[in-house]
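dumping the sequnces here before i forget
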Amino acid sequence: MKKIGKQTYVLSNGVGIRCSHALVGEKEKQGPLGKYFKDFFTDDTFGQKTFEKAERHMLLTAIEDMLKRNNISISDLDVYIGGDILNQLVTSNYVAEQLQVPFIGAYSACSSVTESLALGSLLVDGGFCTKVLCSACSHFSAAERQYRYPLEFGNQRQAYSQWTVTGAGCSVLDKFATDMPKITKVCFGKVVDFGILDIANMGAAMAPAACDTLTAFLNDTKTAPADYDFIATGDLGKLGSDIFRELMSKNNYDIGNNYIDCGHMIFSSTQGCMQGGSGAGCSASVFSAYIYQKLKSKKFKKALLLATGALMSTTTNQQGDPIPAVSHLIMLEA
Amino acid sequence: MKKIGKQTYVLSNGVGIRCSHALVGEKEKQGPLGKYFKDFFTDDTFGQKTFEKAERHMLLTAIEDMLKRNNISISDLDVYIGGDILNQLVTSNYVAEQLQVPFIGAYSACSSVTESLALGSLLVDGGFCTKVLCSACSHFSAAERQYRYPLEFGNQRQAYSQWTVTGAGCSVLDKFATDMPKITKVCFGKVVDFGILDIANMGAAMAPAACDTLTAFLNDTKTAPADYDFIATGDLGKLGSDIFRELMSKNNYDIGNNYIDCGHMIFSSTQGCMQGGSGAGCSASVFSAYIYQKLKSKKFKKALLLATGALMSTTTNQQGDPIPAVSHLIMLEA
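..and the predicted 3d for all of it:
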């Protein structure tokens, strides 16, 4: 059986990630992971008329550059699975239209990167696909005006807020990439909420989702955090990752020193991003530029990535509903 | 190999649909399919404070009723795959939170029903899951005010417009339901656009997507429309299905007399719905209440369902972008 425990799936031989590529904005390039972000752009409109079109252009550029540099033809791709945080996944949908690869829209907000990679790896392991393209992305200015305030309003940012990453991450799963970093297990998360009503306080909203999924995964696999040499959560930020650590310790798991949060890691405290980065492009770009590369160079041997998504809607938020969250996990081996 | 041709997947023994259930509003009950819609509600707020909460309550009620009547316990479900047309899939997300089943958010607008069923059937056939819950839904008043005008505005409706169905459809795919109607092939669609800029004209926007996917499927399987005793498109409406018929004939396929459109079928011309129904709940409820039941009673032996999604966003629409569309296909056998 390919399922163990309650919600974890085992991929018989692992599914190789043939290549992974990130493209980020200037602020991300200036952050602590700058040296890993080889590809970046300085004009946040990317030469386009709107921020929404800029996001689209960023994602398409990232995918096309990755395919070109790795000699993968678009016609080799069986399906494309992806998501973003703009309403109706417009970024991914328009890019899918450009690529003309059958497209499966995945939405779990900032957990879209692991939802896509998890689903894609099951389609490869299940014998359906040979090559699957996966992506996730976000753009600060497009997200900010959709979820919070008009950019022109220049609102003050709360001390517990995060900054949406301008970035895209994409990968190609390949049945035949047996010598590359592999996805060996996946765990789909449950939707949970912590009663958070404040759309700026996403770290607190998402921490219980990461805790729920990681606890389920550790129970299913009968392992402990120390069995992995690297554990990364999506975009909890500093505050959210502190809450996550505490919640895990209440579940009797010491998350240890090998734990990082992509949102906490991507910006430094001097960049004015408060608790750190967020957005579907946050864990997607950190995965492609940093985690994947460390696995490729065997610096990491066994890693867990739990991207985290705050499934907030401005409508339900204004109607007084708490923000639900979800976290999908992938286990990676060098 | 489980893939044939360019974009079609074959499920070795087919994946059985153990049960399928629809719950609709009063207008849908009064339409031509009324006698098939056994479950309906007359108060469109469903006793809730907002239409968004009413939609959620409708979906949860549909799922709980289905599980109860078929003696399926929530703990038997491996994963839940679903989508709706409210921003951030809030309906499905909140319902997933209530159910506490690991949740995979799927978004392809009104094609979410076939995206979910197609993905779910691959997860069962691939050996990962035993039981998968799938759903899609929409609510007229919640959708109308999100995508078009405030309800209080009382806008005139264009002659080519459609009416969002208030309804939910849900199903349980079950590895062991070998004597039930089965999904035997699936085909994920490409995103295409026809240059349509008018968000009321969805039938025209989606017709080329249905044509693209059906043509690909027929080519992949080397079959013709006459090989199926029932072909249904999602929610093209009267106008859209006429365009679809014409596009198919340009591709040298006569779609024949066994073709219906769920949107065209669900409302009669006297109900003031112009070209017919739309919304993710349209093909979802018609599938559960009508198509599935006809397969179960062997009235249909071999059917194709191509739900169609207009991936429109109010933001990109106002920025002058055309409406992209997609259609995912499932083949069903009695």
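The CA atoms of residues 108 and 203 of chain B lie 15 Å apart.
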